[in-house]
Design goal:
The chain is α+β, with helices and mostly antiparallel strands. It has 19 helices and 29 strands. It has a 6-stranded mixed beta sheet with strand order 2-3-1-4-5-6. It has a 6-stranded antiparallel β-barrel with strand order 7-8-14-11-10-15. A hairpin with a 2-residue loop joins strand 22 and strand 23. 39% of the residues are buried. Bound molecules: guanosine-5'-diphosphate and magnesium ion (MG).
């Protein structure tokens, strides 16, 4: 067992002396550094356990550094030790530290009443009652209260035994998780190179493991590991670690960075959060307040944006987003502490619900509340569904979502299978989409198609490429087909013929009015044969009435062209489909008699003006049927 004990308590209540009494080690950095020249450990001592292992004890050098030191070990603190001096009793920092321990999710601990050599027995009784009252309702409500004197040694053996007893009952740590460690110190050691220290809060780190530095993204290898000051091959969650990173300079790293298994943290500047305001916080927090965020060994400035337009007071809980002024590397579920910008008072704490926040408009914030609630306290299946639903517009692959949200969850694959089997999530060539997003795309497609059908009631539909390029302008070609296929599957659109898509309910419904116009148009073109009037003139015959008449003509004409009943030769010249092969047949006949075919002779044979003969001939050229030579045309 690799336990970490975190001390807490008002300044000068005797934390440092107490640690010395328990372990024989001096954690006061300045004194120690003067004596030995250099120390790896800073504010850390080790308590030898009866079973042979060692527990780390975090000392906190001063009030301001308290939050940082606590956070550095957060997630790995097995036991909180709240130290209260018997002569002074509960003080403001005692309360603030207690609140912070709670915000960090620490749930086990004990209370030490120190300096009992300074007080009478009846005073000690009064102080003890005071403390019990103060702790009511907190996680230390029923915790053991141990009276000691770090100075005389009274009660220290009993305290040590109690600590051993409580550590025995600590829940197991997750050693299978990817390792990560917030860096609290970086320095050069002679003959060693660049060394970083920290508390390994999750997983197992082995010699030779690849490591990534976050947020810089630099990579390295664990060349040498020291655990509690001794050379080691493996470090486990809960241990104090000094790590020699190969090939990196001191300037490549800084306090506040994370050292972790590659690609296991998300670097972000907008996070979705749930927060709780400290019960002793005396001010009000409005939307858009600038705050300090403490996470791991880093603190950054941020703006709190609330989902609800409210003012938060002591004890309130809320959902919101933090806009960070510098990038931060985090995991879902991480705890953090918020403190006021100035003066530096603890506001409250919270948990990260989603490392990838999206900027939201007011109406989106209302819709987002349900998702925040699921990410805070939903079941795994609900969370997996919510994560995919949120990212569906990007059609993510399963691994992408798993890496960001669920790499700690062994049940992810099962949850995904269930959701796919229930058709809540749909896989399109391995890219996953929530059914609601497909339905939204389907509705958008129907709107686009409806516009098209209204303007082109005599057409079967529109080319799929036109639809999809408006629906998903950025999607890859192969993927677009999958989306259309899915929409066809969902019976939102249909393919009435190859290369045409239509609204699922669309039917061509030509009116008798359309039929009449079509009849008239066809008669004009059939009667005119090789020499039809210009389109302009034909259109004029149908533009005497209202706009509707004009529109109906345009629709009929377009449908006749699309259906290849009318063949365009020039922008103004269309011929009926029966006359095109006739004109070509005539050319073939003449070509058989004499080649090349003379333009004037062709015109005479057709019995039309030069304009029409040229229109046909140039169209033959364009289609690659004929070719113009110096003295006429030949067949190709
Ligand atoms: P910290 O700020 O909580 O780390 O407190 P320190 O360990 O630095 O102790 C603050 C002062 O209280 C020092 O002068 C200690 O010698 C003194 N002190 C600590 N524990 C005891 C104790 O049990 N009895 C007495 N009389 N003095 C103590
Ligand atoms: Mg101290």
């Amino acid at each position: 067992n690799n336990a970490i004990i975190g001390t807490a308590g008002h300044v000068d209540h005797g934390k440092t002396l107490l640690i010395k009494a328990l372990t024989g080690q001096e954690t006061d950095r300045l004194k120690e550094e003067k004596k030995r020249g250099i120390t790896i450990e800073l504010g850390f001592a080790h308590l030898a356990l009866p079973g042979g292992g060692k527990a780390g004890i975090i000392d906190v050098p001063g009030h301001e550094k308290f939050v940082r030191n606590m956070l550095a070990g957060a997630g790995s603190i097995d036991l909180a030790m709240l130290v209260i001096a018997a002569d002074e009793g509960v003080m403001p920092q005692t309360r603030e530290h207690l609140a912070i321990l709670k915000m960090l999710g620490i749930s086990r601990g004990l209370v030490v009443i120190n300096k009992i050599d300074l007080v009478e027995a009846d005073w000690l009784e009064v102080v003890t009652l005071d403390i019990e009252e103060e702790l009511a309702g907190s996680f230390l409500e029923n915790a053991p209260i141990m009276p000691v004197s770090a100075y005389s040694g009274q009660g220290i053996d009993e305290l040590r035994s109690k600590i051993f007893e409580m550590l025995e009952e600590s829940p197991e740590k997750n050693l299978q998780a990817p390792f990560r460690m917030p860096v609290d110190r970086v320095f050069i050691m002679d003959g060693f190179g660049t060394v970083v220290t920290g508390t390994l809060i999750e997983g197992t780190l082995k010699l030779g493991d690849e490591v990534e530095i976050f947020p810089s993204g630099l990579t390295s290898k664990a060349r040498r590991i020291q655990v509690h000051g001794e050379e080691a091959e493996v470090a486990y969650a809960g241990q104090r670690v000094a790590l020699n990173v190969a090939g990196l300079k001191v300037s490549d790293l800084a306090k506040g960075d994370w050292i972790a298994a590659p690609k296991t943290l998300e670097t972000t500047s907008l996070i979705d959060i749930a927060i709780k305001i400290d019960k002793d916080f005396a001010r009000e927090i409005k939307n858009n307040t600038r705050l300090h965020l403490y996470h791991g060994t880093r603190d950054v400035l941020c703006n709190l944006v609330l989902l609800d337009e409210v003012v938060l007071k002591a004890g309130d809980e809320a959902y919101g987003q933090l806009r960070l002024e510098e990038p931060l590397s985090v995991n879902i579920g991480d705890r953090f502490v918020l403190r006021f910008y100035s003066p530096l008072e603890t506001v409250g704490g919270g948990v990260i619900l989603d490392p990838i926040g999206h900027r939201m408009k007011r109406v989106q914030k209302n819709e987002a509340k349900a998702r925040f609630a699921i990410m805070e306290k939903g079941s795994l299946v609900e969370k997996v569904e919510a994560a995919f639903a949120k990212h569906s517009p990007a059609f993510p692959r399963a691994d992408y979502v798993k890496n960001i949200y669920f790499h700690q969850e062994t049940g992810f694959d099962n949850a995904l299978q269930t959701l796919m089997a229930d058709k809540v999530l749909i896989s399109l060539k391995g890219q996953i989409c929530h059914k609601n997003h497909l339905a939204t795309l389907g509705q958008k497609a129907q709107t686009i198609l409806n516009h098209h059908h209204a303007a082109n009631p005599l057409q079967q539909g529109m080319p799929p490429l036109d639809l999809i390029s408006r629906l998903l302008p950025e999607a890859a070609q192969s993927f677009r087909d999958q989306v259309l296929a899915a929409l066809v599957d969902m019976k939102m659109i249909k393919c009435p013929q190859a290369d045409v898509v239509a609204h699922i309910d669309f039917k061509i419904a030509a009116s008798s009015h359309h039929d009449k116009i079509q009849e008239k148009v066809l008669k004009i073109y059939i009667d005119a044969g090789f020499a039809p009037p210009d389109f302009k003139e034909v259109a004029e015959q149908f533009s005497k009435g209202q706009q509707k008449e004009k529109q109906a003509f345009a629709q009929v004409f377009e449908a006749l062209v699309a259906g290849e009943t009318l063949i365009p030769l020039t922008p103004q010249t269309y011929v009926h489909k029966d006359f095109y092969p006739k004109a070509l047949g005539l050319f073939n006949e003449m070509h058989a008699e004499k080649s090349p075919v003379d333009t004037k002779e062709y015109r005479d044979r057709m019995g039309v003006s030069r304009k029409y003969a040229m229109a046909f001939l140039e169209d033959f050229d364009k289609k690659g049927i004929t070719q113009l030579l110096e003295n006429g045309r030949v067949l190709l």
